[in-house]
């Protein structure tokens, strides 16, 4: 396999953002954050609202700065090294550690794809489309988006599709939540209850995922962002962190306001169950359409990101060509891995529909992977960056504390809930 990592010559046109407005820098952060609010995350937020009312609402806002701290490191690494996450791990720590990180990425990405396609199948069910129609249509659309051979085109499509998630703000408003009860419950959480801790872990895992780290760093490198774009790229990440957590909060509020008062024991392991439980209180037809658009947008953009993250990550470790700027015939392994992810995910959900009940469990799995993911990320920021950009001083300790507490809550909550 070729070890060429960047397009050159006539194989791919060179691009520069020096003459473009700062808005052109936006994209990787917003896309990865929209993908962060994927189908599994939506179901996790819905379960949180039904089981605990608004008692997990404050967690969504606490996770905003945590998400920013983690993803900003990927921006910094991507800009100032020009390399993807897996490639940096291989160079800094050796191939064995790189393959370990890639294995964690593969587990998380496959779990994510199962949840995304389960969401697509669930929305198809709402509108009378059988799985053998909805799943192939979704897979074909995802393949068509990427084979264009242009990162910027993929980015634009992902952002447009992901904006359908804003429909959840309408869902939350239409549910007419009790603001007084929301404020009270948010500040009175049963933090020592194992079941509560399990959903805290699931919400942490729904926010910080291995494929997000790989995707954003690789996307920044593929987009060829430079030091002068760093400030705008941080804003891209910060805005995305706020938007994604507001969407999570909106789903939680909608579930707490519309489902919990009437059906506190409702099972919400699938988007179909969630829609059936929620839309009667929002208006069956309008509620179904708006809820469906939100879930479909979330699932499709997350499927793009998770699949590309795995294709990039494996390429960085294995050394095959990996860039959306290459024609598919010149980067067969890269596009092949992406296609295998998409087709395999759709096929598995179609053949084994019971896999869709694993949505919350997938998020807990992400939480259990946090020590590996954040450990590599923080260490890379300490040893591979130029001196001026290295993680050091007071901010280094802030990052240590934030990542350490996040790992502890994620792992202990996940283990406690499983026991």
Walk me through what this model shows.
Helices cover 72% and strands 0% of the residues. The protein has 419 residues and is mainly alpha-helical. It has one domain (23-418): Amino acid/polyamine transporter I. Helix 5 (95-126) packs across helix 15 (332-351) and helix 11 (210-222) packs across helix 14 (284-318).
Short description, anyone?
Helices cover about 70% and strands about 0% of the residues. With about 425 residues, it is mainly α.
Task: Lay out the secondary structure.
Layout: H1 28-36, H2 39-52, H3 57-81, H4 85-93, H5 95-126, H6 131-146, H7 151-162, H8 167-174, H9 179-186, H10 194-207, H11 210-222, H12 230-258, H13 271-278, H14 284-318, H15 332-351, H16 359-368, H17 370-383, H18 393-418
Fraction of residues in H or I helices: over 70%
What average pLDDT do the residues reach?
80
Please identify, by name, the CATH architecture: Up-down Bundle
Supply the helix-strand structural class: mainly alpha
Q: What is the rounded Rg?
A: 20 Å
**CATH class descriptor name:** Mainly Alpha
> What count of structural domains?
1
Main sheet properties: none
Q: What is the succession of H and E elements?
A: HHHHHHHHHHHHHHHHHH
End-to-end separation:
45 Å
Number of helices: 18
Number of strands: 0
Per CATH, the superfamily is: Amino acid/polyamine transporter I
Poorly predicted runs of 5 or more residues: 1-21
In CATH terms, what is the fold-level topology? Amino acid/polyamine transporter I
User: What overall geometry do the principal axes of the alpha carbons give?
Assistant: globular
Which range does the strand content fall in? under 5%
